[in-house]
Amino acid sequence: MIWLFLSLLILLILLRAPIAVALGLPALVWLFLSDISLGIATQRIYGTLNNSVLLAVPMFLLAGRLMNQLEVTDRIFDFAMAVVGHIRGGLGHVVVLTSMIFSAMSGSAAADAVGVGTITVKAARERGYDPEFAAAITLSASTLAPIIPPSIIMIIYGATANVSIGRLFIGGIIPGLIFASIMLIAVSLIARRRQYPLMGKFSFGRLFSTLRKAFLVLLTPVLIIGGIFFGFFTPTEAATIAVLYVLLLGMWYRTLTWRGMYREFVNAGSTVGVLMLVVGISGLDGWVFTREQLPLLFMNGVSGLVTEPWAIILVLLGVILVLGMFMDATPIILMVAPVMMPIVAAAHIDPVHFGVLFCMTCVLGLITPPVGVALYGVASVAKLPMERIFWATLPFFLSLIVGLIFLVFFPGAITYAPDLFLN
């Protein structure tokens, strides 16, 4: 029966059915054929959503949308330009730095890609850069959003896999910095090869001027991460604090309007409604997987292929990467994490180490065709064909794969900070 379930699921995904339909219909068919009351579907959906941890998702999503609406991205961009804009290929460095700062506020790759991309692609055209280069680095840098805390997909992963969200957040800091460093190196190499122009000299006056304008914005990640670090509030409470602080910034900068705030609240509510529907239905799928002992079957299959922990991680990440080319990160987490966690536990792999790697691999899928949410977002902002942007992104994508493999063999880069601060 499980093979019928999986076959129908894969068929619906390949047919581009709405993800809620692709996840829900096979489960209903399974219940009907198994002569189990369809009422169990309602119970499992409600039980999955009855989790206070998921309250952080709409709040961080709303905070990211408000950041874009209140035009704070411009202040971050100007500050980043003052810091690294004078380097050859400076615009690429600015994009990475801007994305890294914005990531610590939005938690969403799609919000990062659109928010930063709106500014950077226009700036690239004005400064003589290839628009494909600007779009590619914007797309690649958007992968930092779900890695550097706060991260929406880490919240969903933590709730699904029963892993501490605080530890996942802190564990993502060093990998996020490693990914950012890799992209900065790649930008420098490409810029030197293509002889991109220098953007002027460094100016302390400009640095302090832009820092003054962006100072309150730059305090946002300090407030969120610092509060979690020192135990002032939980990740769920931090999401609400982030929204309140962003609203205060809008009032201070006088960019907050009732119409704009209403629009973003409605848009965020619509997005969260769709997301929570998928989350709830995935709970039913997880119940079906458990009943059919799919985790045990998958664990036996993987253990038959490889036995070393690092090899098991690489096999699991390979599966996630392939899925990421066809599905968004959320359904991947909700479908695959419950199946993989018994394997991780049996191989004595640190759940935080694997969790951060899991989320990072899901993120790489967001920038790959045929179904890449961030890729579509950047393509629409840049008004360029998706294929041209992806080919321009390929050097950065391969660099990030190298960084991911590095983190597989050096788990301390992920686990050191959580062990230091949260033990």
Automatic annotation (TrEMBL):
Residue intervals passing through the bilayer: 46-64, 101-121, 133-157, 169-191, 211-232, 238-256, 268-289, 309-327, 332-349, 355-377, 389-414
Q: Where is the TRAP C4-dicarboxylate transport system permease DctM subunit domain?
A: 8-412
- Where in or outside the cell is it found? Cell inner membrane
Q: What is its main location?
A: membrane
Please state the span of the N-terminal signal peptide per the UniProt entry.
none
Tell me how this protein sits in the membrane: Multi-pass membrane protein
One Pfam family here: DctM
Q: Quote the function comment for this protein.
A: Part of the tripartite ATP-independent periplasmic (TRAP) transport system.
Q: Which family does it belong to?
A: Belongs to the TRAP transporter large permease family.
Q: How does it assemble?
A: The complex comprises the extracytoplasmic solute receptor protein and the two transmembrane proteins.
Q: What is this protein called?
A: TRAP transporter large permease protein
Q: What is the lineage of its organism?
A: Bacteria, Pseudomonadati, Pseudomonadota, Betaproteobacteria, Burkholderiales
